[in-house]
Amino acid sequence: MIRKIYMGVFALLGAANANADWTLNMPKGVTELSAETYEIHMVVFWWCVGIAVVVFGAMIYSIFAHRKSKGAVASNFSHSITAEIIWTVIPVVILLIMAVPSAELLIKLEDTRDPDLTVVVTGYQWKWHYRYQGEDVAFYSSLARASVAARRRGSGIDPETVENYLLEVDKPLVVPKGAKVRILLTSNDVVHSWWVPELAIKKDAVPGFINETWFSADVVGVYRGQCAELSGMDHGYMPIVVEVLEEDVYNEWLDRQKGSPNVAADGDVR
């Protein structure tokens, strides 16, 4: 039995080492709001740790220090008004300390006014469609061909040899650095979810409804996400890739897209 336990522990450790991206905490992200979200998350986390230490510490001390074998006798009282006031007031104060900054952040997260760029994002089984409002640019974003080939049974391709396996697309969403990007999110079939951890965005795409969110990325780079809603058999094969470029590079990309004969303004591939 002990041997089986050791083998199980070693197997878990091996699995953890095999996944280099495995982490216990949320990322800080590359936007101002994602940084604020991380800070509030950590504040609440440490408050919870402190509460756990105090409460469980008192419980464990009481169990051992006042056990029957040491001759402890239970106190004979029904209640204490002072104790009830203390354990009511303290949690209320702690909740207010957590709630006020959280409410302020929630208001910021929902403030999509005055965007520099608006993109209509539509979820499909199993891809995303991006349409830049006010621009003659729209396209579908699907799982990259290398991942499509490797995921097929009997393909003979080792997924470990495919860079960004199941997290790469043929056409990423491209945005300029520092711009306020408003996302109008909907779906053409079932409920999907547009989730990019580094941008601190996870929003559902619901058929017949339009959800709003926004971000402003401060760091040039490529940020990956996935559909986070179980939306059918191939739900795991519709990743999200957001590429953040310097403004001049983005404008060059936008001009090339407008002149591309392969993508129509409505997003239909010709």
* Number of beta-strand segments: 10
Helix content: 25-40%
The third-level CATH topology of the largest domain is Immunoglobulin-like
- Whole-number count of domains: 2
Supply the CATH architecture of the largest domain. Sandwich
- Largest sheet entry: 5 strands, mixed
Low-confidence stretches: 9-20, 264-270
pLDDT average, as an integer? Answer: 87
Helix count from the secondary structure assignment: 5
Major beta sheet, strand line-up: 3-2-1-5-8
Q: What string, H for helix and E for strand, traces the elements in order?
A: HHHEEEHEEEEEEEH
Fraction in beta strands: 15-25%
Q: What is the CATH first-level class name of the largest domain?
A: Mainly Beta
What distance lies between the first and last C-alpha atoms, to the nearest angstrom? 63 Å
C-alpha Rg, in Å? 26 Å
CATH superfamily of the largest domain: Cupredoxins -  blue copper proteins
Shape descriptor: elongated
Q: Pairing-aware structural class of the strands and helices?
A: alpha+beta
Question: Can you give a write-up of this model?
Answer:
The chain has helices at residues 2-18, 32-65, 81-110, 145-151, 247-258, and strands spanning 117-124, 127-132, 137-141, 173-176, 181-187, 192-196, 201-205, 211-215, 221-227, 240-245. With 270 residues, it is an alpha+beta fold. It has two domains: 32-110, Helix Hairpins, CATH 1.10.287; 117-258, Cupredoxins -  blue copper proteins (Immunoglobulin-like, Sandwich). The strands form two sheets. A five-stranded mixed beta sheet has the order 3-2-1-5-8. A five-stranded mixed beta sheet has the order 4-10-9-6-7. It starts with a helix and ends in a 12-residue tail after the last helix.
